[in-house]
Amino acid sequence: MTSTDHPFGRTTTTLDELHGCVDVTDAKRVLNSIGVAKPDKAVEGFLDQMPTLLAWLDEHGRDYPWRRASDPWQIYASEILLQRTRSDAVADIYPEFFAQFPSARCLLEADEEDLRSIVHPLGFVNHRVRTLREAAELCAEVQDEVPADLEALQQPWRVGPYTARACLLFAFDQPMALVDTNTARIVGRVFDYPLPEQPHKSTRVQRLLDALAPDNPALARAFNLALLDLGALVCTSENPNCPACPLAEGCEYAQTGDV
C-alpha cells in the first residue's frame, strides 16, 4: 500500500484535523437540499463521531489480503472478484488466483479454463471471466499497467464507478468516497436521509459521501473501510446492533427509537 503500512490506513485523527480535510460546507449543502432537519448539527455530529469510527475500525476491521496489497493489478482484479459475492469467498481463492495470475499479461496468456476453475466458487463465472479478461486487456494496452483514470478503469464489461473508485483509492491514493449499499445505508440512517431506490447510482449520495471523506489519502482509506465494515458487521440491513455502533451518538436512527 502506498499511503501507509497499515492495511486500514490511518485510524487516528482529531476533530480539528477533520475540519481541515472534510468539505463540511458541501456536506451541509447536500443535506439542506433534500430537506434534512438541522444539517449543520447533523454534519458536526457526524464529524464528532468520526475519530471513534476510525478507532472502531482499528479494533474490529476485517483484515483481508487485498487490503495489504500495493500492486495496482492485484487491487483492480480483487475489486472485480469482489463484485456480487462475499468477501470471505474471495479470500479463499485469493492466494491461488494471484499465484497463477500475478500480472494482467499472465492472465491473458493463461488457459481460460484455468481461470474459470479458480473463480468458479464465486459464481457468475461467465461474468467474471469476461470482465477479468477485458480488464487484463486494458492493462496490457499500457505496458501491463493499471490506468489511474476513472473513465479508463470502467471500460471493461461490468466495471462501474464503485470498482473504478476503489481502485483509485486503494491503489493510487486518490482520496474519494465509495458508495455501495452498506455506505449508503449508514448515511441514510445517520442523517435520516431519504435514500433513492438505487442509492449507489445517485449523484447526490455520491456527492455527500465525497464531501464527508477526508482529502488525506490514509484517512480516506480508513474512512471508507470503516463504513464498509460497519455496514457489514454492525449497521446491517436487518437487526442493526446500534448499541455497538461507534456512530450511535450522532445517528438519527439510533437516537429516535427506530432501532
From TrEMBL:
The cofactor named in the record is: [4Fe-4S] cluster
Q: Superkingdom of the source?
A: Archaea
InterPro entries documented for this protein? DNA_glycosylase, Endonuclease3_FeS-loop_motif, HhH-GPD_domain, HhH_base_excis_C, MIG/MutY
Is Glycoprotein there in the keyword field?
no
Q: Which SUPFAM superfamilies match?
A: DNA-glycosylase
Q: What are the record keywords, sorted?
A: DNA damage, DNA repair, Glycosidase, Hydrolase, Iron, Iron-sulfur, Metal-binding
Q: Which GO terms describe its biological process?
A: base-excision repair; mismatch repair
Q: What is the protein named? A: HhH-GPD domain-containing protein
Provide the species name.
Halomarina oriensis
